[in-house]
Specification:
- The protein is 97% helix and 0% strand.
- By secondary structure, the chain is an all-alpha fold.
- The protein has 2 domains: 14-72; 74-116.
Protein backbone atom coordinates (compact mmCIF):
# COMPACT_ATOMS: atom_id res chain seq x y z
CA UNK A 1 0.00 0.00 0.00
CA UNK A 2 2.68 2.54 0.84
CA UNK A 3 4.04 2.26 -2.69
CA UNK A 4 0.68 3.36 -4.12
CA UNK A 5 0.55 6.50 -1.97
CA UNK A 6 4.10 7.41 -2.93
CA UNK A 7 3.29 7.03 -6.60
CA UNK A 8 0.18 9.22 -6.28
CA UNK A 9 2.06 11.93 -4.42
CA UNK A 10 4.85 11.89 -6.99
CA UNK A 11 2.31 12.11 -9.77
CA UNK A 12 0.52 15.04 -8.15
CA UNK A 13 3.84 16.72 -7.42
CA UNK A 14 5.00 16.37 -10.99
CA UNK A 15 1.66 17.70 -12.29
CA UNK A 16 2.05 20.71 -9.99
CA UNK A 17 5.59 21.28 -11.22
CA UNK A 18 4.43 21.18 -14.81
CA UNK A 19 1.64 23.65 -14.08
CA UNK A 20 4.31 26.11 -12.93
CA UNK A 21 6.59 25.47 -15.89
CA UNK A 22 3.92 25.68 -18.59
CA UNK A 23 3.50 29.50 -18.43
CA UNK A 24 7.29 29.94 -18.47
CA UNK A 25 7.61 27.72 -21.53
CA UNK A 26 4.72 29.50 -23.25
CA UNK A 27 6.30 32.89 -22.57
CA UNK A 28 9.61 31.78 -23.99
CA UNK A 29 7.90 30.37 -27.10
CA UNK A 30 6.04 33.65 -27.55
CA UNK A 31 9.27 35.63 -27.38
CA UNK A 32 11.00 33.36 -29.90
CA UNK A 33 8.11 33.54 -32.35
CA UNK A 34 7.83 37.32 -32.01
CA UNK A 35 11.55 37.69 -32.78
CA UNK A 36 11.16 35.51 -35.87
CA UNK A 37 8.09 37.44 -36.96
CA UNK A 38 9.69 40.86 -36.46
CA UNK A 39 12.71 39.77 -38.49
CA UNK A 40 10.50 38.59 -41.32
CA UNK A 41 8.37 41.73 -41.15
CA UNK A 42 11.49 43.89 -41.40
CA UNK A 43 12.65 42.01 -44.49
CA UNK A 44 9.24 42.37 -46.12
CA UNK A 45 9.08 46.08 -45.30
CA UNK A 46 12.52 46.70 -46.77
CA UNK A 47 11.58 44.81 -49.90
CA UNK A 48 8.31 46.68 -50.25
CA UNK A 49 9.67 50.18 -49.66
CA UNK A 50 9.86 50.79 -53.42
CA UNK A 51 6.24 49.71 -53.82
CA UNK A 52 5.16 51.95 -50.97
CA UNK A 53 7.05 54.91 -52.46
CA UNK A 54 5.44 54.32 -55.86
CA UNK A 55 2.01 54.13 -54.26
CA UNK A 56 2.61 57.35 -52.34
CA UNK A 57 3.74 59.16 -55.48
CA UNK A 58 0.74 57.83 -57.39
CA UNK A 59 -1.65 59.13 -54.74
CA UNK A 60 0.09 62.50 -54.74
CA UNK A 61 -0.27 62.80 -58.52
CA UNK A 62 -3.96 61.89 -58.33
CA UNK A 63 -4.52 64.51 -55.65
CA UNK A 64 -2.70 67.14 -57.68
CA UNK A 65 -4.79 66.34 -60.76
CA UNK A 66 -8.00 66.58 -58.74
CA UNK A 67 -7.02 69.90 -57.15
CA UNK A 68 -6.09 71.44 -60.50
CA UNK A 69 -9.32 70.24 -62.12
CA UNK A 70 -11.30 71.79 -59.27
CA UNK A 71 -9.40 75.07 -59.67
CA UNK A 72 -10.11 75.13 -63.44
CA UNK A 73 -13.76 74.25 -62.98
CA UNK A 74 -16.34 76.77 -64.20
CA UNK A 75 -18.31 76.35 -60.99
CA UNK A 76 -15.27 77.10 -58.85
CA UNK A 77 -14.45 80.22 -60.86
CA UNK A 78 -18.06 81.37 -60.59
CA UNK A 79 -18.04 80.83 -56.82
CA UNK A 80 -14.78 82.80 -56.47
CA UNK A 81 -16.22 85.68 -58.52
CA UNK A 82 -19.39 85.73 -56.42
CA UNK A 83 -17.33 85.70 -53.23
CA UNK A 84 -15.24 88.64 -54.46
CA UNK A 85 -18.36 90.63 -55.35
CA UNK A 86 -19.94 89.86 -51.98
CA UNK A 87 -16.75 90.97 -50.20
CA UNK A 88 -16.78 94.27 -52.10
CA UNK A 89 -20.44 94.83 -51.22
CA UNK A 90 -19.77 94.15 -47.55
CA UNK A 91 -16.87 96.62 -47.55
CA UNK A 92 -18.94 99.34 -49.18
CA UNK A 93 -21.82 98.69 -46.79
CA UNK A 94 -19.48 98.98 -43.80
CA UNK A 95 -18.17 102.29 -45.17
CA UNK A 96 -21.72 103.59 -45.61
CA UNK A 97 -22.71 102.57 -42.08
CA UNK A 98 -19.61 104.24 -40.61
CA UNK A 99 -20.33 107.45 -42.51
CA UNK A 100 -23.99 107.41 -41.42
CA UNK A 101 -22.98 106.80 -37.81
CA UNK A 102 -20.50 109.69 -37.96
CA UNK A 103 -23.09 112.00 -39.51
CA UNK A 104 -25.64 111.01 -36.87
CA UNK A 105 -23.12 111.72 -34.12
CA UNK A 106 -22.33 115.15 -35.57
CA UNK A 107 -26.05 115.98 -35.97
CA UNK A 108 -26.71 114.92 -32.38
CA UNK A 109 -23.88 117.12 -31.10
CA UNK A 110 -25.09 120.08 -33.18
CA UNK A 111 -28.63 119.66 -31.85
CA UNK A 112 -27.32 119.45 -28.30
CA UNK A 113 -25.36 122.73 -28.76
CA UNK A 114 -28.47 124.51 -30.02
CA UNK A 115 -30.47 123.41 -27.01
CA UNK A 116 -27.91 124.60 -24.52
Amino acid sequence: MPATKTTKSKASKSAFDYSVYVPLGAGQLLIEKSRQFSGKALKVAKGRSKDITKGYESLAKRGEKLASSIQRSVYTKRAIDQTDKARQQVKSTVRSIRRAAGATAEATQAAARKVV
